[in-house]
What does this fold into?
Amino acid sequence: MTRPRKLFVKSYGCQMNVYDSNRMADTLAPEGFVETATAEDADLVILNTCHIREKAAEKVYSELGRLRVLKTAAQAEGRKLTVAVAGCVAQAEGEEILRRAPVVDLVFGPQSYHRLPDLLARAERDGRAIDTEFPVETKFDFLPAPSRDKVRARGVTAFVTIQEGCDKFCTFCVVPYTRGAESSRPVAKIAAEVERLAAAGVREVTLIGQNVNAFHGDDVDGSTCSLGRLLRRLAEIPGIARLRYTTSHPRDIDEELIATHRDLDALMPQLHLPVQSGSDRILKAMNRRHTADDYRRVIDRLRGAQPALAFTSDFIVGFPGETDADFEATLRLIEDVGFVTAFSFKYSPRPGTPAAELADQVPETIKSERLQALQALILRLNAQFQRYCVGRAFDVLFEKPGRHPGQIVGRSPYLQPVQVLGPETLIGEVRRVRVTEAGPNSLFGDLAIAPSARRDAAAALTATGA
Ligand code: SAH
Ligand code: SF4
Ligand code: F3S
It folds into this structure.
């Protein structure tokens, strides 16, 4: 028997990369690869990269510098370390990576990782290999299912890709170029994947896609299935307690999805709905194809259907041509909607995107000032929401032991970590928790005891004379 080879996959960027990294490991498991937690003892290191902003893309090259040292050290010990670059930088830069970084043996894009065993063999034979095609076959048809133990080890929550790619072409964004055209997986395949996860103990599934609510997968009866209908279908799978989806585009929120937020208890009342800017002029230049008021109306309709909904968003400051007045319109939109939290970024010009060519780029100092002001506002709204939670009771899905003995940690419907004193047997269970205290990132609370249990406890105490 040959010694199992060790694999270390490092993920950058969005949740789809996290999902893809797991699937890469699944693809290599039948080849005798086992996962390891560090690059130091690995035989194969895969960097699953992100190209969304310059900083994200640069990280790859600094990590490759570190791997060069490791590779030389491995060679000195008579071991071979294979280095692969995957993901969106691989797709965007291709051959350029091989030229710039001699340490790299293998480059492959997000649509070709199902060919990994073959690619590794090619790199072995030819020295180096590259595959950045958008193949006609879909990788999902070739990916082996992970073992039950592997799913268990990954925890009680899981991501499932249902849609990939983007046809929106916002003028600042590389995703349509790195992930390719929008495509949806068939409903039967998604349901089978969720059933397998549920059977292995997964209780919460987040459906992911670059534009997840543009989902339009083939249904078993030959019709086209929307995201709303898919969510209802998946909620029926035994064991699935909670569903989420991300990331959505405001233009693709339809009536059926809104009604699903009203009717489906398993669908968590938290929605990440990126808006980028509150200025109509900038939204137009970004090619977002909606106005700030269109966005406000979508939020109102969603809130009308499901008042418990909390919204989070993404913002870009310093898009070319953004004036103080444009920026103030963004701050106004944030106040109006009352986002509970948000991600915010300085505009980063990306090669090959239309906005990078615009003349009136905003100076770095102004970008920094605006980012600070926006983040201060978001922090204030977030603190307000954390305070609002104190004294309320939420269903919490417990995920893992806490940092201190006797503590367990779960997530609220709004994704906040919640810490309570409780037994580890509750991991994987949903329990009502009364929130007693809120920190900046976490909530703390007590397991709410059902009234009947409370009566029993009181009776037991009286019986023991306590
Ligand atoms: N599909 C999602 C977003 C994907 S990228 C959507 O349509 O909203 C995640 C976030 O990165 C974006 O929402 C945007 O806020 C940010 N982003 C994308 N390109 C960027 C760029 N060139 N500079 C700065 N931020 C960017
Ligand atoms: Fe990028 Fe726009 Fe597509 Fe989102 S909708 S992935 S921001 S092009
Ligand atoms: Fe980054 Fe690619 Fe995701 S560019 S954000 S890893 S789709």
